[in-house]
Amino acid sequence: MHPLPKIPKEEIESRLGRFQDFLQQAGIDGALITQNIDLYYLTGTMQNGVLFVPSSGEPCLYVKKSVERAKFEASVAVEEMGRFKELGEKLKARFRNGKRLGIEMDVLPYGLAMRYLRFFPEAEPVDISFSLRQQRAVKSSYEIEQLKEAAKMVHQVIESLPKMIRPGVSELELAANIEYQLRKMGNYGLYRMRAYNQELVLGMVASGAAAATPTYFDGPAGGLGLSTAHPQGASRKILAVGEPILVDISSVWEGYIVDQTRLVVIGDLEKDLEQAYQVARQILKEVEQMGKPGVAWQDLYLRACEMVKEEGLEKHFMGYCADQARFLGHGVGLELDELPVLAKGFDQPLEEGMVIAIEPKFTFPQRGVVGIENTYLVTKNGLEAITFASEEIIRLDL
Amino acid sequence: MHPLPKIPKEEIESRLGRFQDFLQQAGIDGALITQNIDLYYLTGTMQNGVLFVPSSGEPCLYVKKSVERAKFEASVAVEEMGRFKELGEKLKARFRNGKRLGIEMDVLPYGLAMRYLRFFPEAEPVDISFSLRQQRAVKSSYEIEQLKEAAKMVHQVIESLPKMIRPGVSELELAANIEYQLRKMGNYGLYRMRAYNQELVLGMVASGAAAATPTYFDGPAGGLGLSTAHPQGASRKILAVGEPILVDISSVWEGYIVDQTRLVVIGDLEKDLEQAYQVARQILKEVEQMGKPGVAWQDLYLRACEMVKEEGLEKHFMGYCADQARFLGHGVGLELDELPVLAKGFDQPLEEGMVIAIEPKFTFPQRGVVGIENTYLVTKNGLEAITFASEEIIRLDL
């Protein structure tokens, strides 16, 4: 039907196998998967449909549109969804007399959930999102390959920043040029996020006071943005000499997202901002050494907080005062906000195959944001950077 | 705090007033608004928070991040959200002994809805989404101004298509160039959609067989896309002589989206495709005449279906056979998939101030998609096009 590469069949079988293992261990009789990313991860296609995964036996994807494309792309059985009531009959037959039904409570809209749950009046709905996200956090070699391709794309952009940045260029023009370069390489142009109401265009390409403008975005850098309707990231502000220019950007290859930040300055940074940047680098070096299978997610964040305190930079870490984000890093993959979350309260262990963007940053109101970010793979020997640009500040002559 | 234009205070007051009128008429004691677009529409800010709107009295926006920015931008009272439990106490106090609580059932995730509803164990949840979307469908003069700005942006792109299109250029390169041009004008780069699992990058810039590849997207044109993880819109296919090149693109200004489609061909189209394009134009002319306040939304679709039948093009209309979309047009505004929907079953009347993208299209498997789209304002005298490019096929020399 079409020439696009498909996710290998064995990959899908292995993912489904692991998910069914989880269902069995958790005493969940079957799960109804509805969100496009979860569907893609478990079937190999992102067509409009719902996937029923029994705790044992064959899963089935019920598709509304396009059945033809889903049949071609998916590595699971595909059936036409038909009318909603018919779907209900089919699902009930599959669930048999199951007692506990898994659903994605963090993304499935309430109204749609209620319609599905009416098919199973005897069943207890159970949230499977966190567990599926935990499974997705551990990447296969196929997934790591795609992430490494994405990292090459973002690296090319970092390399060409000196050609794009000069006084008089606006944040918007810089963002436009970065997006253009990425897009021609095959970047999707949309960075999927799972959290309700979160969205991202490219990342945070922002400078000086504009970068320090607080936002709703659940991350360390904010950004003035283009309007109150687009209140984050690049604005129309003109890049100026001596201010921190934060280039926090992502790229996407075959659905997989990599995240990286570098800092640029035209001329020289003020001393305290330069020092804060060096603290961010030290934090990165420190947690690079700590990050090994078995270490708790929160330990990296807590260690960073200690180092920040020693430097007296608590007010500035990951946003300013009331607008601080309370984490040090996040998993990346098919979504930008994957597990693990490096934050207090998460005592789960790092596992081999997890991929994490770690991004220590400091915000100085009216002056800017400084910091650095790499994406890392957790290997049995520790963290291995997937992004590979120089970690020095990119200094441009006046 | 920042120099971005704000939505006029009177505009927000009028929106809230209309929404409270609806709550009173529907016997709903208060509504909890959570989705970023609805929040922006009713408050003027898109910060992370929830808005409580009582059926009468002062609404209050409870903000998590950024309180400072929300206070600056919003035209309603803003309070710090605090911990989730504290939010519950505040909301309960506001709701008093209300019986019916409005929530956005089409977008609010199930898990979050359950957490909110636990604050109101006695209350009956009621879906307010459709009514709020009906209100939002009728645009104010402020909103129409923003939409007209967006239309100017997309018009500039249409004008420069002849410079961007030639044999050997890929769909991806063409999309990249269009996005780059729009972005430099201040385009946001993200086209918000309300429907679960729907997303869009730019639109459908697609040619020949690739354009006719069916997708999950709830629209007439599909597109091969870049991968099974990005299965719609522009692909790496090279533009060729004699095939239809569909340029279905959107632009965003101050959050407001306009949608337009034009058809390009290098050399000549085959006769039946050319004829189908002319039928699409005739449908557009016909519904342009019909579209007046008081006419049912579905009437425009049903009339189009009649005309399609007369031409024997039923199999090709709005997608091919099983993969047809069953509508002729959709409202646009802060979201791309607003009301009204021009589709069977919607007997609600058109109203002055509604803004609708009407997009008759025909899909020919292996050969391409032809069609046209304008965005219209419903005035008391009928439809007035907001998009204003020539409706002829854009014919380029070999």
From TrEMBL, chains A, B:
Residues 145-380 form the Peptidase M24 domain. Keywords: Aminopeptidase, Hydrolase, Protease. GO terms for molecular function: aminopeptidase activity. SUPFAM superfamilies: Creatinase/aminopeptidase, Creatinase/prolidase N-terminal domain. Gene3D superfamilies: Creatinase/methionine aminopeptidase superfamily, Creatinase/prolidase N-terminal domain. Residues 15-138 form the Creatinase N-terminal domain. Pfam families: Creatinase_N, Peptidase_M24. The keyword NADP does not apply. This is Xaa-Pro aminopeptidase. It comes from Thermoflavimicrobium dichotomicum. The lineage of its organism: Bacteria, Bacillati, Bacillota, Bacilli, Bacillales.
